[in-house]
Amino acid sequence: MADNRPIGVFDSGLGGLTVVKELVKQLGNENIVYFGDTDRVPYGTKSNETIKKFARQDEAFLLSKDVKLIVAACGTVSSVAGDTADELPVPFIEVVSHACKAAVNATKNGKIGVIGTSATINSDEHRKQILSLSPESQVICQSCTLFVPLVESGWIDENDVVVYETVKKYLAPMIEAGVDTLILGCTHYPILSSAIKKVMGENVSLINAGTATAQAVKELLESQGMLSTNTQKGKISYFVSDITPSFSSIASLLLGQDVSENKVTQVDINSL
Known about the structure:
It is a single chain. This protein is α/β, with parallel strands linked by helices. It contains eleven helices and ten strands. The strands form two sheets. Strands 4-3-1-2-9-10 form a six-stranded parallel β-sheet, sandwiched between helices. A four-stranded parallel β-sheet has the order 6-5-7-8, sandwiched between helices. β1, α1 and β2 form a beta-alpha-beta unit.
């Protein structure tokens, strides 16, 4: 058995490209369709009802591209709109559960930090899942509202005083609590890893949800006989709801390869 249809991936903006990057590493021959809702980013400050509406529209677009599986490469959607998966005709993979499992396996002192958007943190989904896996763990959560705008604006240099001081202020509770493992609960956050590491120190393990999620996708496709038989390097199709002036530079940085505007198609997501 095999399934040569593409993998569908969506996010509130460009952060989900960090998940695409990990998928390419682990499943290099798979075709991928990526949708970034750059017109409506960030999702994390929206109401749960609005986030679910956006998620359904994003999923509908990917289904129109005949994907075999949908990855919600968005911590906010995974935390508050995961039930939209029940309406889908294809398998659905989210980022929260896999990040939680990785964190529980990584921690040595049982003190796990979680950073994410306001909606992600308010859902308390990470804490619930971590404690279900490891009841004795201590979970410290912190919303980092400015992280997504920083990344989407290209403000990511660990030596930039604005970036460093912003990260330092948000992570102060993590340092005070003595966490040894920190879940980057938004797929935008790995691009700030250098600044986060600089603040937290080298002994703190950072959990990139993209890595764990890509492994989960690989395992699902293998178990269901849905791997592609493509012998060539897979192709990535990029779609966004708005092509911003900084799109190419930020997208290329997140993915680790050139993503120029002429490779991207803008779509009217509100029509779905």
